């Protein structure tokens, strides 16, 4: 374990070069790490080849060449496949390797992967992120980390290249738990902001003025003051750009589904979380799947 921590600029593996993974891996390259990449879509790797990264044929190849690997994947089945599949990381993982999964998946799946990784003599941590594509590009994501506390500093050393907040949450799965709770609240507050703005506009209020009043009053929240869903109220947010970019409706529906599973498993009542889940699923069914989640204003 010590040799891994000491050799700070030894290669780092990165699997999953999508909207989030791409800028995250680029920040590792910027910090001088030799990066070894894999993505199921070869064209996603092309850019990294030009940056001098090694491109591999499978997750197993990455595990053979790097003893610190970060994965950033769309969902639980993808994470399972990358870790435990036929050409998965666990086929060739080295003893003592540090495996960090930044995907947002079910906490139960994180725990299951951690057990499989442990059996191979390696270390697994879940480290989902908050902040979206903008924060990934700027390198100021928030990482919520679950795993063995003794390994947290080794993980933090890598994660601080990509984020400004790296928070230790507890055992494996607690990082996912924190992320799911945040996103459930975010969906509820976005729908609430959209409803309030919609009502105010229909009552004859100017949307910019209404937003200003909400943001100096007790109704203020991130959805109203940083990410307002009404076109023309703010610059540089998806609502100003026909709801392009940002955090997609499909992903929000997925995260709300994870919150529902967790609520069912823990017998926790989440009436507004359930309602939010249904609204975002309806949006997916009605052609909003690829829009930013703030498009709920348009949908309502």
UniProtKB/TrEMBL annotation:
Any one GO molecular-function label of the UniProt entry: NADP binding
Keyword Magnesium recorded: no
GO (cellular component) term, any one: mitochondrion
Provenance organism: Dicaeum eximium
Enzyme Commission designation: 1.1.1.31
Record keywords: Branched-chain amino acid catabolism, Mitochondrion, NAD, Oxidoreductase, Transit peptide
Domain 6-phosphogluconate dehydrogenase NADP-binding as annotated: residue spans: 12-170
Pfam families (alphabetical): NAD_binding_11, NAD_binding_2
Record carries keyword rRNA processing: no
Gene that this polypeptide is encoded by: Hibadh
One annotated GO biological process: L-valine catabolic process
Catalytic reaction annotation: 3-hydroxy-2-methylpropanoate + NAD(+) = 2-methyl-3-oxopropanoate + NADH + H(+)
Main location: mitochondrion
Active site annotation, chain numbering: 179
Pathway where it operates: Amino-acid degradation; L-valine degradation
Protein name: 3-hydroxyisobutyrate dehydrogenase
Location of the 3-hydroxyisobutyrate dehydrogenase-like NAD-binding domain: 173-299
Signal sequence extent: none
PANTHER family on file: 3-HYDROXYISOBUTYRATE DEHYDROGENASE, MITOCHONDRIAL (PTHR22981:SF7), 3-HYDROXYISOBUTYRATE DEHYDROGENASE-RELATED (PTHR22981)
Family, as annotated: Belongs to the HIBADH-related family. 3-hydroxyisobutyrate dehydrogenase subfamily.
Location(s), subcellular: Mitochondrion
Enzyme class: oxidoreductase
